[in-house]
């Protein structure tokens, strides 16, 4: 027995030193390979992430849609997203991946997780004020990727890409970074086909005027022309009344909303306040009482996970298009 044990141990050592036991070498070797991807105007060289962290639903569901749940170190998910997580098509993936924090993204959480790669948006995740930026992470040896949509207001020379194209760019870039290009290409192909089907179904005449209401009473917080709801409303055959606003998410005056005379109000549903309360406020708010949306009780609920840049955007447009058809618009 002693002789057999010694021989076995000797063979194992030889295996480790000479061949690294066959398939076990695959992950380290792949980790050393790099791809170069352009992100927010910068060309960045990425090895395969080994301990990736994603912030919020936009990041997390892009990863899940590409089948990467089992490769993630964890997620940072603000507690306000809880209702949308419960409704997500990727509920089981959320259960499998560790939630590192239910607050905003922070450098402390990233370092404690020993992450080597972080996915987030600018200002909605990365932040100068909170001391977590791609540049600072890079100095610590941690790579990052910013949502293309958020490149709109990043740096001295912002990169401006229509919201839906920004989503496709992210999915294809993530496919390259994680070496799942074929899956990413299939996903983007499917989303593009569905988007084209929606465009072909647009009714004749002027599109329905849609106001996207996120929150706010003194002033409404809403989606401008550079965020995902712009693509959702447009694909559905409507027109975002703030489409001419060169902002992602922004605050405007109620006067501007009333002047636009919205026919439909799309209300974003997440954990800041029950959506029923938001709708009650909008119904009872005197300045809006003369708008067709309030007069005709035309409120459409837009789930938070669908309202941020992510793989649910096209499904959200399909639902809104169905709603617009149901009211004859």
TrEMBL record:
Q: Give residue ranges for domain Fe/B12 periplasmic-binding.
A: 51-329
Residues making up the signal peptide according to the UniProt record: 1-31
Q: Which CDD domains match?
A: TroA_a (cd01148)
Which Pfam families does the annotation name?
Peripla_BP_2 (PF01497)
Superkingdom: Bacteria
What the entry lists under InterPro entries is as follows: ABC_Transporter_SBP, ABC_transptr_periplasmic_BD
Q: Which keywords appear in this protein's UniProt record, sorted alphabetically? A: Signal
Identify the SUPFAM superfamilies for this entry: Helical backbone' metal receptor
Mind telling me which Gene3D superfamilies this protein's record contains?
Nitrogenase molybdenum iron protein domain
* PANTHER family per the UniProt record, alphabetical: IRON(III) DICITRATE-BINDING PROTEIN, VITAMIN B12-BINDING PROTEIN
Q: Which family does it belong to?
A: Belongs to the bacterial solute-binding protein 8 family.
Protein's name according to its UniProt entry: Iron transporter
Q: Which organism is it from?
A: Actinopolyspora mortivallis
């Amino acid at each position: 027995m002693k002789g057999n044990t010694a021989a076995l141990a000797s063979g194992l050592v030889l295996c480790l030193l000479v061949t690294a036991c066959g398939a076990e070498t695959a992950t380290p070797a792949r980790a050393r390979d790099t791809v170069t991807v352009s992100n927010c105007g910068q060309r960045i060289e990425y090895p395969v992430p080994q301990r990736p962290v994603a912030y919020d639903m936009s990041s997390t569901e892009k990863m899940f849609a590409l089948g990467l749940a089992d490769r993630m170190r964890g997620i940072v998910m603000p507690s306000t997203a809880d209702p949308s997580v419960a409704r997500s098509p990727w509920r089981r993936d959320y259960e499998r991946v560790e939630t590192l924090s239910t607050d905003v993204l922070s450098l402390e959480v990233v370092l404690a997780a020993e992450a080597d790669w972080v996915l987030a948006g600018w200002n909605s995740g990365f932040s100068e004020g909170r001391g977590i930026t791609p540049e600072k992470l890079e100095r610590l040896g941690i790579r990052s990727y910013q949502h293309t949509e958020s490149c709109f207001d990043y740096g001295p020379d912002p990169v401006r890409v229509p919201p839906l194209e920004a989503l496709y760019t992210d999915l294809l870039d993530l496919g390259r970074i994680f070496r799942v290009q074929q899956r990413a290409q299939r996903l983007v192909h499917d989303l593009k086909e569905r988007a084209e089907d929606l465009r072909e179904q647009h009714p004749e005449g002027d599109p329905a005027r849609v106001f996207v209401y996120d929150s706010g009473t003194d002033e409404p917080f809403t989606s401008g022309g550079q965020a995902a709801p712009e693509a959702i409303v447009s694909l559905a055959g409507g027109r975002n009344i703030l489409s001419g606003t060169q902002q992602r998410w922004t605050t405007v005056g109620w006067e501007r909303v009333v002047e636009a005379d919205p026919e439909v109000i799309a209300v974003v549903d997440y954990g800041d306040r029950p959506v029923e309360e938001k709708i009650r406020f909008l119904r009872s708010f005197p300045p809006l009482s003369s708008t067709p949306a309030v007069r005709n009780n035309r409120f459409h609920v837009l789930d938070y996970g669908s309202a941020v840049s992510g793989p649910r955007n096209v499904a959200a447009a399909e639902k809104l298009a169905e709603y617009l058809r149901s009211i004859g618009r």
